[in-house]
Amino acid sequence: MSGSESRAQAVFQITNAENTPVKKPKSLEKIWATDVFTLTKMEESLSKKAYKAMKKTIDTGEALDVNTADVVAAAMKDWAMSKGANYFSHIFYPMTGASAEKHDGFIISDSTGKAITEFTGSLLIKGEPDGSSFPNGSIRVTNAARGYTAWDPTSPAYIMHTDNGATLCIPCIFISWSGEALDMKVPLLRSNSAMDEAAQKVLRLMGERKITTLNSSCGAEQEYFLVDSNFYNLRPDLVLAGRTLFGASAAKGQEFDDHYFGAIPPRVQSFMQDTEEQLYKLGIPAKTRHNEVAPGQFEIAPYYEAANVAADHQQLLMTVFKNTAKKHGFVCLMHEKPFAGINGSGKHVNWSVGNSTQGNLLDPGKTPHDNLNFLVFCAAVIRGVHLHGPLLRAVIASAGNDHRLGANEAPPAILSVYLGSQIEGVFDQIAQGKLDGCDEGGIMDMGLSQILPFAKDPGDRNRTSPFAFTGNRFEFRAVGSDQSVAGPLIAMNTMLADSLNWIAAELESTIDGKSNAAIREGTIKVLKKLMKEHGAAVFGGDGYSSEWHEMAVKERGLKNLPTTADALPYLKDDVTKALFEATGVLSETELASRFEVHSEIYINRIALEANLVQSMAKTSIYPAATRYLSDLALTAASANEMGVDFDNGTAKTVANNINGMMKAVSKLEKAAAKDGFKSEEEHMQFCANDICGLMEDVRGYADALEADVADDMWPLPTYHEMLFIK
Ligand code: ADP
Ligand code: MG
Q: Model-level pTM greater than 0.70?
């Protein structure tokens, strides 16, 4: 079958497929967390003492003794087996940002050869996957492959149902034999502790007496595309690279703004409902769902949770989405830019910190100018973004995300903070050493008797800011849809810890006396100093504008880091090293290994794309275009015979574009073969500046051909088909 026949068949199959009907949703109480080994289940199955110990560990991170682990393991096994699980798996989160698992049976045989099941505390606490196949960024030499996974009791165990049966999944850390973190979870836990310790210091200086453990929270909004698998399978670029490397824009894009928040198509709705049911069973609080800006693009946002749990849940959510899409004949694309010319996908990471005694410390309340705790924590974030903007850019750097950042779509590659007019006003006063009052949101009264007046937010939103204050949290909007939220959370918690430590030291030497007035006066002084040094990171205007790009760099000294090649080296920067060293979140070796792992992934990804561009151009687009050209030549010849003056303009354009494309392919081929780079930095710059441009050149010619070549000869599903046919 020719490529174009396959396309026609794909359309036929999609339009004739029977859709899974949209079912009535199951009642939430019946399914909520049924696949999770929750605290309630522990309370039912554990002794009082064991349950209390577990609860304390979950609430405060306190160590659990081995005997309790034995008891918990036994209860966990019984529960899992009652749900049909014969296997358990330590789930861990290697530096690549993926999730990894190793399955083991509960089964062993006893001395008489009879099969029995066993799951002890030591099996729960420690696993030993062969670590050598996970990237370790030179932490270990290849023959020293030992790696351990170790149970994280603060993230609940759960059952994963697949066609192969049920498996008990146990969230774990992943470390080397020498004790270095090979994963995302260890630094996330460490960053949370560092933040907690620093925050407690500051709160005590602010006069607080009872202070419970502080935790960071995260609510991640996940954008994704759904493409029918019939089309997907005909696109080698989607299958291997997760994005289209070719493809002319459809006549219709997102210019009508008719997709965003529009009615969700029934087939998609049935997919969403299916995913939500599974998420609920897994105890993941899926809350919001809607169409996104681009055709074929959607969003899911669960309710926020403790950062460590939210990060594990976010990984699980991505797995559930990808698996469930398959069942519905879709492929769920999490790539940051699957289609050129329309919106890419991000993952907005909403982040706050708080505890049970002081509440959410990023909640300004009704009178922010009187809320010193809030102002201190908010200022700490401003300082963090100012000092560590390049780090925040580095932790979201990937080949995929480069297509969004700095490409005048999603937030720019310059990290600045948006506060909203009210809070910005309060900090303007602080910069002048005072704190008198603040603007209020006021009341929205439309003067229509049937519409009830309501309280307005004190500030508008700013979609162009990469890091925006949104009322009671910060929203890191520049994170890529395919990325783990752990990287950004580690960076945010750590920079906050560092700023709070700085503030604590300043408060200690500035506050003169114990009275509230003395604390207030001292705090204003410290915050004034902070804003003088770091206020340059605050920006409320249009982040996409060229004026900002110029002003940010020239006048404010902020860094514009458009590509991964520009951003990743900041992981090795002295400022970053000092930050992680001082807070104890990552050692120099651990940090260096992260640079190595991510630069290698970037280089490999660009190499893969470069190879694919060449092979698709040569074996799929070139043959289609030349066939069409010979058709045109035949037509011209017969027109000539008939004595008709045939306009061969199209033939010439096609011929020129074929030549142009093949020349560009040769150039790309040569460039992709280059080696002998002195460093990863040099190699990454070559990828970003040379290879990416050459791939675009090939694509330019190929997309022009797509616009001219007969549709029934074109071998690849088009943008129109992939985005609009569901
Ligand atoms: P929007 O699209 O308007 O930004 P959504 O409702 O889609 O908002 O998503 C907002 C996300 O922020 C949700 O995951 C929500 O639970 C989360 N969130 C709300 N409050 C907080 C908070 N204090 N800390 C962290 N995340 C929060
Ligand atoms: Mg949002």
A: yes
> Average of pLDDT values for 136-148?
65
What spacing in Å lies between the alpha carbon of 491 and ligand 1's midpoint?
19
Highest averaged pLDDT of the listed ranges 101-110, 146-155, 567-576: 567-576
The verdict on the CB of residue 261 being under 6 Å from ligand 1 is no
Q: Please choose from 218, 350, 473 the residue to mutate so as to test ligand 1's pocket, defined by most ligand atoms within 8 A of CB.
A: 350
Summarize pLDDT for 613-634 with one digit per residue, the tens: 999 999 999 999 999 999 999 9
Does the domain at 602-724 match CATH 1.20.120.1560? Answer given as: yes
pLDDT in tens, 101-128: 888 888 878 778 887 788 888 888 888 7
* Sequence-ordered strand ranges (E) for 259-378: 286-291, 297-302, 305-306, 330-333, 347-355, 359-360
Fold match between domain 32-183 and domain 602-724:
no
For the chain, domain boundaries:
32-183, 191-601, 602-724
Q: Please report the pLDDT score of residue 445 as a whole number.
A: 67
Q: Which fold has domain 32-183?
A: Ubiquitin-like (UB roll) (3.10.20)
Pairing relationship of beta strands 85-92 and 165-176 according to DSSP bridges? parallel
Residue keyed to tokens 């002295």: 574
- Is it true that domain 191-601 has CATH number 3.10.150.10? no
Give the residue whose CA is nearest to atom 3 of ligand 1: 470
Residues with CB under 5 A from ligand 2 (ion): 348
Distance separating alpha carbons of residues 616 and 659, to the nearest angstrom: 15
Tell whether ligand 1 has an atom less than 6 A from the beta carbon of residue 177. Answer: no
Those residues whose C-beta lies under 8 Å from the C-beta of residue 573, and which sit 6 or more positions away, are: 390, 391
